[in-house]
Amino acid sequence: MVIGVPKEIKNNENRVALTPAGVTELRKYGHAVYIQATAGVGSGFEDEEYAAAGATILSTIEEVYAIADMIVKVKEPIAQEYKLIKENQLLFTYFHFASSEELTHAMIQQKAVCLAYETVEKTDRSLPLLIPMSEVAGRMAVQEGAKYLEKPLKGRGILLGGVPGVKPARVLVLGGGIVGTQAAKMAAGLGAHVTIMDVNLTRLRYLSDIMPENVDTMMSNEYNIRAEIKQSDLIIGAVLIPGAKAPHLITRDMLKLMRSGTVLVDVAVDQGGCIETCTPTTHENPTFIIDGVVHYCVANMPGAVPYTSTVALTNATLPYVLQLANKGWQQACRDNEELLKGLNVVNGKVVYNGVAEAWELPLTPVSDVLRKVIAV
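Given the sequence above, the corresponding structure tokens read:
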């Protein structure tokens, strides 16, 4: 198979979808790999390293899309890439369709095969290609939140961990999954007083057992959220519903309950956000203020630490890339239920329920699409 890796062109996105080590593995199986020039530089990988591993370096993004059977990326295609995508071309990347109607319709129109990292799902319902970036984003949420609590950045002017004689900051984490767990660990490690909320009592019992003494668990509901936000300095939104929009746990009217300089970090913003007033921002302009509350809503947070993020992500994606390349996407999805669940849009048809519901589009059963494609 011919595999193409374009350079990411989303604002301040420095990750790359394949490392030189990944190229080496693909070349072992006889696959051709084409990398756009300087695609890996932001993550610390030079063109020479890719060439030494057996990749061919192409000058432009147009060349990469034109030659490849499968495009492997990190972030969803943006508008200037839409027309480069060919009918039946396989795209393997983060899509988050439920947060972008424009992207959804563009991929339908291009009749691409869109296999989304974020909906590849194991039998235990874990999301193996979302976990690495969730771990990074959860830890970064606290790092960024602590920074924006500083007064010059319009925060409350409070040190997350406090000092002897001064109470630490209070951190509220909404969601006890991978992001929330990592955020709570980081905040607790810095000495903050942390409350983590979730709707799953079994998960809360687990978190209560593993978390340090300065972390409390609490059932997530509107009453408890309204009570906690009044005294919280940093609030981290860490809610995920795979492939669907995140629910708004903090609504516009709740901002009035918060103290001026409170910081909100919505890690779920790439799935629509769990804070109503959050809209996607960039690393270049990461924050905005509403009612005195600082909103940090960068949709590609791990892009700020590209070396760590790239290696962590490719550790998880490469086995799936190899399956897709070795077998072709149809056979790979028939053989592996995890990959099958990653299919979102196939040849102009929406095959993932969360995407169909988000934009009120007709849903085609993925098994039907697979049968039709294989029969052609």
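The mean pLDDT is 95. Try to locate this feature in the token string yourself.
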